[in-house]
Design goal:
The complex is a heterodimer of chains A (307) and B (398). Chain A has 307 residues and is mainly α. Chain A is built from 12 helices and 2 strands. Chain B has 398 residues and is of the alpha/beta class. Chain B has 2 domains: 2-141 and 282-351, Response regulator (Rossmann fold), CATH 3.40.50.2300; 145-276 and 368-385, Response regulator (Rossmann fold). In chain B, strands 7-6-8-9-10-13-14 form a 7-stranded mixed beta sheet, with helices on both faces. In chain B, strands 2-1-3-4-5 form a 5-stranded parallel beta sheet. In chain B, strands 11-12 form a two-stranded antiparallel sheet. The chains are: A mainly alpha (307), B alpha/beta (398). The interface between A and B is large, with 43 and 45 residues.
């Protein structure tokens, strides 16, 4: 195994930070990693679309919200556990994703980016308002005993259920990487993402690739929504902060970089948990999230200019 | 939604019939998309229907004109303008949000219609109204009277049940304006009599929902009473995380403006204490509450989910009785008659008006301390309307 020499100082710095956090408050690391898992599992599908279809989907969080409501209603009406409801929900979300693309996004692919942003923003508002009218703005939460699963080390008890987000993020990340590197469709998608005109010249059906990738991303964020509603309360506006966080993570990681999203989520998740761990400082965690993103993007831009 | 639209069409039809006979017009505004406004308007419509069935007021039918304020100040102002100038209402009722009420104050001052307000807890509204607003009858408690009632309630509970120990308080508050002002006013109120500490958290309603750091701090503090001031979206996730972290303070108290749908059905809800003005359990000790509850369920096929239902219902009755006593629609006569109000309300208490810090006509002053027991909100204080004794301590998680 070879290690990039440039990465050595970062690895040492990271290890030192982990040791320091473990010595100070081990739960910061636990909650930080859990939080990172949630952020990454919501952001990865957005990165997929942005990297290949080149669309900033501002309805990303709202799609997750719609899926959460769908799961909630299936679970309530036929008593299916959300983890089992996830499969029919994925199917419905796939159909929804296909139609959203064909009916709306397809027609703005060559339009200015601002038009695309306004379109997806409109889709987001339509989804929020429709759910609000159908289900009212009242908050809903399914009581599930397994979300309170806990472990105790010494005198510290902590929740372990949120590690499912870590598993989902890793599964999603590695799954997409494998798909893009080892399947015909995946390789075609990478080619379309890098150069759609070139891909079309060599016979790749660009539009078919776009439809497929967008539909897959809606299915993935939809499945995350199904899991999200097991842990969190749902209401019509629950998705919008995740659109913003996902977009910020994608920007920080570099457009289309799946592994970059996992590292960025880890950094931000642990930083947030560390700030929350300081008495009276929790109000700063949201600011720290965006501050780190600004610093990373600024440093990258500076380095780029030097090159 | 369909039902709600049918209801509005029906009330508009009844209203037009009433108008033909020279009705007494009552204008109202609530945020109809919110459960408080939705059930508040339903409570008011129910009261109007009952009063009209019983022959109306001064031989006239009541006509209720409801405008959606959408929870926004500008829409609230527009609602008052429309009700007064277009619909030409005789009286105004309603309201929930303090921000909307604050925006409405100048317009209300301009027209000086008699108002029976169901909302606005912020003292800023009272300051904006000023001492001269004798046309303003405020039913909902102000924030400072609420705070004082909690202090009174916990002190009374501590005295009546010596096994309940309340020395150390911890207030978890959402980091927005609502939570921060709750923390500031509670600290001021409680720190003389109790050891007091607190920590903020980001509410799930505002993109948060991770309470672990706050719970860790509360656990370290070892409070006798753990209170949280956040939103309904925080209620169950916070309990689930508290369970995962094995945090079970002797008293677990929530103070959101509303509770999520079916919260009471969750096993975790059992023995959670809360603040509120009404619960269906009051039916056991108050016949007006039972009458309201039965009629509400029969008409709308759902339970009143918030105290705004009985509060708006009471507002209509208070106003109707005031008009009856006045014998005319003249504002001065109605104000004088309303000052004589003694109305046993569905909320479990007799409403009468007396001065608060600024205004002359303050109605209800206390909130109640309730507790979820077997899926029902039981009143544990005030003792006059107590429906069950408190369960103490909050059981350790299994």
């Amino acid at each position: 195994m070879t290690v990039n020499r440039k990465a050595v100082p970062w690895i040492i710095l990271g290890a030192a930070a982990v040791v320091a956090i473990l010595a100070w408050k081990p739960t910061v690391l636990i909650y930080g990693v859990q939080r990172a898992g949630l952020y990454a599992s919501v952001a990865i599908p957005m990165a997929l679309v942005l990297g290949i279809v080149h669309i900033v989907n501002l309805a990303h969080g709202e799609i997750m919200m719609v899926s959460a409501y769908l799961t909630y209603n299936i679970a309530r009406s036929i008593g299916l556990d959300p983890w089992l409801a996830l499969l029919p929900v994925a199917l419905v979300m796939g159909i929804m994703g296909y139609f959203i693309f064909q009916l709306t996004i397809r027609h703005t692919l060559k339009a200015p980016e601002l038009n695309q942003l306004i379109l997806t923003f409109g889709i987001a508002i339509t989804m929020t308002q429709a759910i609000s009218l159908i289900f009212t703005p009242q908050t809903r939460k399914l009581p599930l005993s397994y979300v309170s699963m806990s472990a105790t080390i010494g005198e510290t008890s902590f929740g372990v259920y949120d590690f499912v987000y870590v598993a989902i993020a890793l599964l999603m990340g590695f799954g997409i990487k494998w798909f893009l590197s080892n399947t015909r469709m995946g390789k075609a998608a990478v080619a379309v993402g890098q150069n759609p005109r070139g891909a079309a010249i060599v016979g790749i059906d660009v539009m078919k690739t776009y439809v497929f990738i967008f539909t897959v991303s809606v299915i993935l964020v939809g499945m995350t929504g199904s899991v999200f509603m097991t842990r969190q309360s749902i209401f019509p506006y629950v998705g919008s902060p995740y659109t913003m966080k996902s977009f910020s993570l994608v920007a920080m990681a570099g457009i289309g970089s799946i592994s970059g999203i996992i590292y960025s989520s880890l950094l931000l998740g642990i930083a947030e948990a560390a700030i929350n761990g300081i008495r009276g400082a929790s109000g700063w965690s949201g600011i720290v999230f965006f501050l780190i993103i600004i610093i990373v993007i600024a440093v990258r831009a500076y380095k780029g200019r030097k090159l | 939604m369909k039902k709600f639209l049918t209801m509005f069409v029906l009330s508009a039809f009844l209203a037009s019939t009433a108008f033909a006979q020279g009705a007494i017009k009552i204008g109202a505004n609530w945020n109809l998309a919110d459960i408080t406004g939705n059930h508040g308007s339903k409570g008011a419509m129910l009261a109007v229907e009952e009063i009209n069935k019983a022959g109306g007021v001064l031989g006239k039918q009541l006509q209720l004109v409801i405008v959606d304020d959408e929870g926004k100040g500008d829409k609230g102002v527009a609602a008052i303008e429309k009700l007064v100038t277009v619909d030409k209402v005789d009286f105004l009722i309603g309201g929930m949000s303090s921000a909307v009420a604050l925006a409405q104050v100048p317009t209300m001052k301009k027209y000086q219609k008699v108002v029976v307000s169901t909302g606005a807890a912020s003292y800023l509204v009272e300051n904006a109204l000023g001492a001269d607003a004798d046309w303003y009858f405020h039913l909902h408690p102000w924030d400072y009277t609420q705070g004082a009632s909690y202090l009174e309630g916990w002190t009374a509970i501590r005295n009546k049940y010596p096994n309940i120990k309340i020395d150390r308080m911890f207030l978890a508050y959402e980091e927005g304006a609502f939570g921060k002002s709750s923390y500031d006013s509670s600290k001021k109120m409680f720190e003389k009599d109790f050891q007091f500490d607190g920590e903020s958290f980001k509410s799930a309603a505002l993109g948060g929902g991770d309470y672990t750091a706050m719970i860790e701090k509360a656990k370290e503090y070892k409070p006798d009473i753990f209170l949280w001031a956040g939103y309904d979206a925080d209620a169950l996730p916070m309990l689930e995380q508290a369970k995962a972290m094995r945090f079970s303070p002797p008293l677990f108290v929530g103070a959101p403006p509303g509770w999520p749908k079916d919260f009471g059905k969750s096993k975790l809800a059992d023995n959670v204490t809360l603040y509120g003005m009404w619960a269906p359990s009051i039916n056991d000790v108050n016949p007006v509450s039972k009458k309201f509850y039965d009629a509400f369920v029969a008409k709308y096929k759902e339970e009143p989910a918030t105290y705004f239902g009985p509060l708006a219902y009471s507002a209509v009755y208070v106003l109707a009785e005031g008009i009856k006593r006045a014998g005319s629609l003249d504002s001065t006569a109605v104000i004088k008659a309303l000052e004589q109000t003694k109305y046993l309300s569905a909320l479990g208490e007799t409403i009468s008006f007396s001065p608060s810090n600024v205004i002359k006509h303050q109605g209800i002053r206390n909130q109640k301390i309730l507790q979820w027991q077997n899926g029902r909100q039981e009143v544990i204080w005030p003792f006059e309307v107590q429906t069950r004794p408190p369960v103490y301590p909050f059981p350790a998680w299994k």
